[in-house]
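Study the following:
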Amino acid sequence: MHTPITRRTLLVSGATVGASALLGVPAASAAGREHDALVTPVAEVLDGGEQVTSLVVSSPVLDHAERSSLTSSTFAVHVTATNPLTGETAYAQERVVTAASWTRRGEISLALEHGWGVDGGGTLQYMGGYGRNVLLDLDYAITQVEPLRARGGGGAIVLDSFRQGRLSDPEVDAFTYHATAAGLNYRLFSPARRAGRDGAALVVWLHGGGEGGLLTDGYDYYDNEAQLRANRGALGFATPEAQDLFGGAYVLAPQATSAWMLDGDGFAPLVLEAIEEVAAAHRIDASRIHVVGCSNGGYMSLKMVAEHPELFASSVPICCGIGPRDGSGTYFISDAELAAMTTPTWLVASADDTTLDAEANTVYAHERIDGSIMSLYDRVTWDGNTYPGHWSWIYVARNDPRHDGASIWEWMSAARR
């Protein structure tokens, strides 16, 4: 029997099969007859989005286990993922345990197969009909299929039941939860390094269209999660490498209630309010506020510069959408607004982007923003994997674009308003 769990508590109901009957060995050990374990899922935001990459099993009885008796086949793992909005099963399958090891705290760590093209690890589901990513309810079931030996010949150690634990993603969890006075959700990373005399830099990350809330058709989904879990855009600026370059920087990741491009005029003052609230609560260097965004957020980064030309030290629109100029639709950023921009701007896109055509959007904007820099890739490839052409944010999240010998993070960190 698997215990149902909510999306907030997230993972791991346990296998309640009697392991002693399964194994044909006594359940008794040096620590007692029945042994309960806590299983903590550990996730990581990869270039293709967040996946559960390991499970950590902890129980006092493990202190009595012979370390060499643990193997990758000691436990079997099954996951069922459910969309919390529709109740439909997104996937249900076995997870492959690739390695098993002991942590310094005497816990068991089960490494799970993961990566681009590996099914069953993702924490989000993209609802194509609405263009939104939804954080899944994940139900992990663990079964012990081989015994652990007790030290000193004390018999077999069997974990009979498993309690659910909260999803852990150290990079995501480093961002605290907030909402503005007007109700706009945002997450905030605070630097470990003490701010200098003038305060710390602030990087504002504006997410893509898939990471906003879903408040239509009876749905009430606005959870302040997807803007960090869908890609490494915001997380990149919280890495030690980026923090060293900026000398410590706050990273602000607001979440739209829908999609930025649906109401840029309405969202712009809400984003500004988030910036102002963070600046009022922390020592922010007003000359080092940077705006970065991908797709819908690439548009929104340009919108914020157009609305507040004196605010930002740099602007990095990634695979941005500015709208067609051929009469087929309404443009979002006007030629006059582009020509008036004086904020240092570095645009990034991939030529094979089929979502927002690079020539009609990124190249068009670059040709009209005086002094702007553009990195136009042929395709999106990283670490041996080829991703959809729209995903050029991967390059910025990995500090790959370069110009005149400087990486994009170096260029940003040196910029002052």
